[in-house]
Design a protein that fits this description.
Length: 98
Amino acid sequence: MEAAKKQNRSFEDGKNGEGKGLGEEVETLRSKVKRLESEYEAKVKEAEAAEAKAEALRKQSEGSLLQYDHLLEDNQSLRNQLDSIDQTSSPSDGKKNM
C-alpha cells in the first residue's frame, strides 16, 4: 500500500512537471500569436499604403494621358492652321516670283 502511494505521488509529480512544461509551451505559443498578429497588422497597413499609392499613381497617369491627348489635339490644330497659312501664301508668292 505504501508502495502504491509512493508510486501515485511520483506519477502526480511527473504530471505536475509535465503541466509546467505545457504551461510554458502555451505561454510561448501565446507570445508567438501576439507577435504574428502584430506582424499581420503591420503588413495590412503596409498593403493599404501601397494600394493608396497605386491609386494615386493611377489617377496621376489618367491626368497625364488626358493632358497628352489635349496637347496632341492642339498640335494638330496648329499644324492645320500652318498648312492653311502656307496654302494661302503660296499662290501669291508664286505670282510674285514669276
